[in-house]
Amino acid sequence: MELTAGYPFWLMHDGLPFAYPKLSTHSTSRVAIIGGGISGALTAYYLTEAGVDCILLDGRTIGLGSTCASTSLLQYELDKPLHQLIKDIGEYNAIRAYQLCGESITTLTDIMKRIGFEEFEMRKSLFYTSHASDLSFMKSELEARENAGFDVSLLTRKDMLEEFGMEAEYGILSEIGATVNAYALTHALLQYCIAKGMRVYDRSRVTDIKYKSSGVELKTAEGCIVRSAGLVNASGFEIVNFISKGIVDLYCTYALVSENEQEKEAIWKDRIMIWNTEDPYLYMRLTKDNRILIGGRDERYSNKASRQLYEKKSEYLQKDFEKLFPGKTIRPEFAWSGTFGRTGDALPYIGEYAKTPATYYALGFGGNGITFSVIAAQIITDLILEKENADAEIFSFNR
After folding, report:
1. What is the pLDDT of residues 256-270, one digit of tens each?
2. Which pLDDT band, with edges at 50, 70 and 90, does 368 fall under?
């Protein structure tokens, strides 16, 4: 499956910072992890810190799946607004899912500090609408977030124009959020784990899995066998290769990044993250060197959507920006597409699946997959260590 096309900014920015070997011998471990993106790296971090012997395999070069295409906004908001999610899955589960995502932002920043990773910034997040008729919707969402304990405020058209130079009707400003480089963070996490004894192999595609009473047996395309007591599948959107159950709909999202403008002031105040109520929604952030990063204009996944549309979508995204910020222009430098997934209830799938024994899934489907990945790593580590996790059922396959 082609997960990216074009020139993902983070890959251009960082290149291939580390070289990882290909698996060339039979191996054993307590836990094997499939997937060398941010989900696999965070799971590896938690398991390694817990003293669990791990081996990680990726069919590509590390980070070159969806991770390098991520726009890397860290938000507590799910793709479905909280007041609507409450109606769909119940008040407790909806609020707890939002709260866990909020907690994950703080947790991840603590992890990054611990491993010496500095390429992140704490940022406020603005959720806006361009429709005057959405006032009731925005007030309902504001109330739901306040009741869940989030520090939020309602902004008017005048507020957003004066504060940020934006042409929009209403907005909800959240105090917690962050931006990061998920591609570089993935490598930093894996290097930290390798220094503690974990084994990481890329270009080692798993082509067959046998589920046994004693654990699992993986076979790679090169014929190497890995035997482990447990398996974590963090293969993301390629899960269709392992599970036939229709748990996710795949889409292509599109992004562009402008030329760097480090010689200028940030184009909007406080360098906030911005996204809107549209479906598909528009989202944007700034990089450290004042590049404007914009994403959206999603399409259902197809090879054509992935490979051929990103340049045309880049033109639309540029116009979207100039409509939101009248009188402002940008000069795009890189454009790309990336694959992501949507579930029916906007929640990730985390934990065990009955048809694949001794296997745990870290599937952070949705717009805030990085915070989902933190939650998945915590839950799966508890399950492997046979500890109770009160939140596991919210994201289980049986929900």
Report:
1. 999 999 888 899 999
2. confident
Residue 354: pLDDT band with limits 50, 70, 90: confident
209 alpha carbon, distance to own chain's centre:
26
Q: Supply 184's token pair.
A: 């570089």
| Residue 280 preceded by cis peptide, ω within 30 | yes
Beta strands of the chain (E only): which ranges?
4-6, 27-34, 54-57, 73-74, 120-122, 125-129, 152-156, 170-174, 178-180, 199-201, 206-212, 215-220, 225-233, 249-258, 273-276, 283-286, 292-300, 332-342, 349-352, 359-363
Q: How many CB atoms lie within 10 A of CB 245?
A: 11
* Separation of alpha carbons 290 and 285, rounded Å: 9
| Separation of alpha carbons 190 and 195, rounded Å | 9
For tokens 């996490």, the residue is: 189
DSSP codes, 267-279: SSGGG-EEEESSS
Interacting residues of 23 by C-beta distance below 8 A, sequence separation 6+ = 57, 201, 204, 220, 222, 224, 226
Pull the structure tokens for residue 37. Answer: 């993106």
Q: In the predicted model, what is the mean pLDDT of the chain? A: 94
List, in order, residues 6 or more apart from 303 with CB less than 8 Å away. Answer: 2
Residue 212: how many other CB atoms lie within 10 Å: 10
In the chain, what are the domain boundaries? Answer: 21-70+183-246+345-395
Q: Which fold has domain 21-70+183-246+345-395?
A: FAD/NAD(P)-binding domain (3.50.50)
Question: Could you give the CA distance from residue 378 to residue 372 in angstroms, rounded to a whole number?
Answer: 10
Q: What does the pLDDT average to over 337-360?
A: 91
Q: What is the DSSP string of 187-234?
A: HHHHHHHHHTT-EEE-S--EEEEEEETTEEEEEETT--EEEEEEEEE-
Contact 359, 230 (CB under 8 A): yes
The residue type at 397: F
How many angstroms separate the CA atoms of 143 and 126, rounded? 16
Give tens-digit pLDDT for 115-127: 999 999 999 999 9
Per residue in 137-178, pLDDT (tens digit) is 999 999 999 999 999 999 999 999 999 999 999 999 999 999
Q: Model's pTM, two decimal places?
A: 0.94
Instruction: Quote the CA–CA distance of 276 and 71 in Å, as a whole number.
Output: 15
